[in-house]
Structures are given as C-alpha cells and as structure tokens.
Prior knowledge:
- The protein is an alpha/beta fold.
- The chain has helices spanning 27-43, 56-60, 72-81, 94-97, 101-110, 134-144, 163-171, 175-182, 198-202, 287-310, and strands spanning 2-5, 15-19, 46-53, 86-91, 115-121, 147-151, 155-156, 159-160, 187-191, 207-210, 219-227, 234-241, 253-258, 269-279.
- The two termini are 39 Å apart.
Amino acid sequence: MRVTHGSIALAGKRLALTIGNFDGVHRGHQAMLERTVSRARALRLDSCVLTFEPHPLEFFTPATAPARLTRLRDKLELMAAAGVDRVHVARFDARLASLAAERFVDAYVAHGLRAAWLLVGRDFRFGAKRGGDFALLEQLAGRHGFELEAMPEVALQGERVSSSAVRAALAAGDLAAAQRLLGRTYVISGRIAHGEKLGRELGFPTANIMLAQRAPLAGIFVVECLLEGESQWRPGVASVGRRPTVNPTAAPLLEVHLLDYAADLYRRHLRVRFLRKLRDEQKYDDVPALRAAIAGDAAQARSYFAMKTDA
Length: 311
C-alpha cells in the first residue's frame, strides 16, 4: 500500500476514494473500505483513503478531544490488510481547517486525488466550519465529473457502529462489546521506552509505552503481547493510567509485565491485546501494599490463561 502525506495530494491516475478519520477502523469503517476496494476493482481503478492527522477535534479542542482509539501506524496497517491501494494522510492544521467546502473538494477530491468515484456517509461534513454536506457533494460531483455514493449506516444488534460507541464500551471496561463493534480484540501498540525501573524494583519489570493521546480505557488488564520480530503472543498483565502511588506521571502510560519472560525490550515495538479488565487503577498507602496488589493481578492473569489453556 502506498502512503503519502502533506497538504497537497497528487494522483497520477483517477481513483476510487473514500474520506474519513477512521479512528478504530471498526466494522462500519471496514464496510466502507470493503465497498471502496470492491468498486475500485470493478472500475479498474486504484482504491484510496483520504484521512487526517491529527484528528480534527484534537486540533480544535485538544483538552476535550475524544480519546484516540488507533494510532496512525495501526490505522494504516488495518487499511492495508483491507486491500486499500493508497492512503493520503492530510495534515489537519489551520490552513486545512479554514479551507472552504468547495475549495476542499477541488483541491483534494477533484484535482488532488482525481476521484472518479467517491464514497462517504450521508452525515459527512467537510470544509471550514463544517459548511459542506452530502447535498453540496451531489452538486460538485456533476461539476467535477465523479460518481458519488452514500454509505449506509452499519448496525450491530440494533446499535449503530461508531467510534463513539467503541470508546464508550472501552471506558466502561466492556471489552466484549468493544470487540463486537471492532470485529477484533482491542489493541494498543507502541515502541517501548525506558522507564524509571520501578516495576523491576517491585519484582515485576514492565515494558513502558508512552501514550501521546489519552487512552480510551484505564485500569489493570489481562493482556497478550506481540513483540516486534516474533510471531508468538505472550501472556501478561498491564496497567493503563498515571501510576498514582509512586512517581505519578503527567501523561498516560501503558505498563506491561510479561509473565515468565525476561529480555531487553527497549526500543522494540509492542502490540498489546486487551482480554479482560481486572480492576480500576488505585492509589495505595505504601509500596508494600502496591507490590501485593500487583502480585494479585499477576496471579489473576495466570489463572485466566490457565483456564483458557484447559478449555
């Protein structure tokens, strides 16, 4: 899959295009990608996704923006797995935010990515102050010579599949509901950074991943981990939060203790798959109480995997 970045998107040939943030790449997004890829093949075009980084709400209201479900790297990997030929990542900045709706279509859809076919939802809004809508796109499609299609909503058990619904499930610790909406187990990935070695001092060394954006879930979890360069998912227990008892962190942190595994993990990329929530993060009176709680978490994780193996 070809990935391009920048304020100007240029295409050598016409494309089948879809547009969106695709945060989480949930079942609704997957249906959009599948339709785009399928239509591209029928029209003998390359399929293309136009997405944005950062999320527009992270640009406009960073303090209250919704939690990020998927890092850009993971989003691109999921799009590649769906068979998309090309993704253009447009930087969402003041220039793009101020672009009038008709100018946005001209710069990105008609001339930049040269769409011959475009798929969006009927609630799609675009351009400065969200001034563009599906009705305007219908007018501009005729002017610029591209075919426009509306993507129907995707519902699951009567609930509309959306990034907001996934966030709500994760925030509630309902990993099963999040998995249904996503079509897969929820994953956070990142590169392991040096920590303060607190886990090692407590007898539970951790792999630490700094989270640039607020995570959609928090607490202590049973997890499986996939290390860069390996094919085996390894059992573990993880904490997502700010470590309130000792050396609290200003930014959210993912700390993972891999069960029965000892190696130098620094700078390796790690994928963390969340299987069960054990409890919320707590502040303890002292380090011995914290150590006892971590030992209990690790014991629960071992029991989870033992039952899984027996089943």
